[in-house]
Amino acid sequence: MSNQGDGILHFNESLWAYRMACHGATKVCLYQLMYGHEVVLPWELKVGSRCVTFQDQLTTNEYLALMKDGLEDVTSHQLNALINVEANKARVSR
Predict the structure, then answer these.
(1) Residues whose CB falls within 8 Å of the CB of residue 37, separated by 6 or more in sequence, listed in order
(2) 34 and 45 in contact (C-beta within 8 Å)?
């Protein structure tokens, strides 16, 4: 028999997965639309994935430059998501 804590844990994991998943309507994950880069998952921090290792080796200025590049990409991701949503609306209305 599971307790309430297990249910909350599974809900949190499900919510996390939903936020990180690529959605059919936008064709991009919500996290990337919001923050401009892919999410770094908790297990990647614990294990020390290639992405995290690379990030740790960057200087502050290099990191800032990469984050600014990512922010410029946010606009293109948002525009593409809007185009996809509008195309889906048109398809559904037919």
Answers:
(1) 67, 70, 73
(2) no
C-alpha gyration radius of the chain: 18
- pTM, whole model, 2 decimals? 0.49
For the segment 52-78, what is each residue's pLDDT rounded down to a tens digit? Answer: 788 888 899 998 888 787 777 777 778
Neighbouring-strand partners of residue 29: 22
Sign of the CA dihedral with 82 first, then 88, 93, and 94 last: positive
Residue 93 to residues 80, 89, 90, Cα–Cα distance (Å) = 20, 6, 5
Confirm if 29 and 81 have CB atoms less than 8 A apart.
no
Alpha-helical (H) ranges within the chain are 4-20, 30-35, 42-47, 50-56, 60-93
